[in-house]
Queue: 2 jobs
Job 1
Amino acid sequence: MEIRDLLRLHGQEKLLRHYESLPADAQERLAVQLRAVDWSLLSLLGGENHTNPRGELAPLGALELAEIEKDRARYTEAGIEAIQAGKIAAVLLAGGQGTRLGWDKPKGTYNIGITRPLYIFECLIRNLQDVTDMAGRAIPLYIMTSDKNNADTVAFFEEHDYFGYGKENVRFFVQEMAPAVSFDGDLYLEAPDRLALSPNGNGGWFSSLERSGCLAEMRELGVEWLNAFAVDNVCQRICSPDFVGATLLSGSDCGAKVVSKAFPTEKLGVLCLEDGKPSIVEYYEMTDDMITLRDDRGELLYRFGVILNYLFKIESLVEISNRHLPVHMAEKKVPYIDEDGNFIKPTEPNGFKFESLILDMIHMMDACLAYEVVRETEFAPVKNATGVDSVESARELLKRNGVTL
Ligand code: UTP
């Protein structure tokens, strides 16, 4: 279809003004981007509250710390065995924009050290090395980036010699992008020949892994399970043998590390059952009852929050790979060019980005083992520069865990 007709069909005639004034090569660049747009996303605009309807929710228990302690040696042994057999790979989700931190480079390149450089990526590699040292073999590490941060991320790892992890053990793959739109549903341009695109959320990780050829490669290597984790939790243990072993022994097709909520209204997604299947409910979706009800031990009924550290069986991920994840819309400050071609950097949200989320994959699994970890040793997310979940709070936790900053 002619690009003009495509734009008219989707009510995006405003873009024609820019398109028609462009030289042929720039028109071609923009046309390629426009043809790749998933126009079905625009039909979500105007939907109710941009949330997806929920089924019947019920609490889901976890394997709690006291029980884990009794069996930790057995879990660890099973995990080490799986790692040594090459069945486990790690997938670092690092395609996000980290806007809250206000660091315009990839979040993993942020230096959290005080008296010496200590980069977020370095913390994660060190944590993984604890396990590879214990198992006596490397764990393949796949790093998801986006078009916006791939070059900087790869260059950073090269510059730091992969922090001693071995370049041969690391692969990068790039996630997909989605258009950003105004509140009225108009696509934004960030340059006359370029759409304003954002990474399409961490839910696209598995399809991007497949499209990149990395999935085929890892299956050839005999990998059966993937530990997917976020870039910003500097204390998390990655591919922890006890967690891996417990999940494998449980017979579930996935495991999720969870922490006990610090207080009822803490902003954590909570692992529960939805229509009898595992599911994660975001803190803003919880009713007052879900937030406050307690069991006969006096513990919160919906007590276990996820920390974005999941172990998935590849076979199950392949089975669900043709199913669509729900798309979430988030308000966002989108830099754009206005009708006269002036570049505008908004100070307030001026539109939506579209994202799918890895947490929605949990509901597609048959069973999920909720595995409790100690928040003081494993949960130090760096979302903001100061305050809650910040550089400051993560530094405190790193220090308490004996890391020199
Ligand atoms: P966040 O939800 O913290 O999003 O990502 P973000 O984009 O990094 O940060 P803000 O909201 O702009 O401040 C949780 C994890 O998912 C990854 C992030 O890199 C982080 O590890 N992620 C997020 C992706 O890999 N791709 C995405 O499109 C979004």
Job 2
Amino acid sequence: MKTGLFITFEGIDGAGKSTQLSNAIDYVKGLGRPFIETREPGGTELGERIRSLILDGKNKISAEAETMMMFSARLEHLNSVIKPALDDGKIILCDRFTDATYAYQGFGSGVDLSLIENLERIVHNGLQPDRTFFFDLDTQTANARIAGRELDRFESEAIDFHQRVREGYLTRAKAHSQRFSIINSDRPADEIKGDLLNELAMLCS
Ligand code: TMP
């Protein structure tokens, strides 16, 4: 029986997701409710190994194989981390989930969306996040923010890839508007934090 709360955080690279995720973690810690923070790809030993393989730009992997690797990692993550935590009534703060596969592999790399839908159906077995925060920022600003960092496989893609990823997220948000909160991230970090914490307060009440 599912009693916890499953919250996911999404955004194009450089949109400020990680900063806001830390704010969410601090907030939930302050509530004194049991929670876990986790991430995708990752969250389990296998998931972290898959993450290293995928994010290393030196490995040549087709976008379809990459998609299946994401879902292999996700299956382990769901069965050994997410579902048990939900059953224990915990709040789960998860850095990216299946919307990222639609946005990056589907819209960004052109993987057939029906492949992603089929894998989603098999792997999720009906489970979806209760809420997804999408930190939305235009690609020029986001790219400028990550310039100078050491870039992984996806961060080093050209700007038109990130543009397609953003469109992918916006398409998902429109199709699943009950679940998504789009947070305009072209504002001072404190304003963004204010909006996020207001929504979290309602969700966790
Ligand atoms: P991040 O943890 O810094 O957000 O990095 C994870 C990267 O992996 C990010 O560029 C998005 C990418 N990614 C996918 O391409 N597909 C997926 O399904 C997931 C979960 C992440």
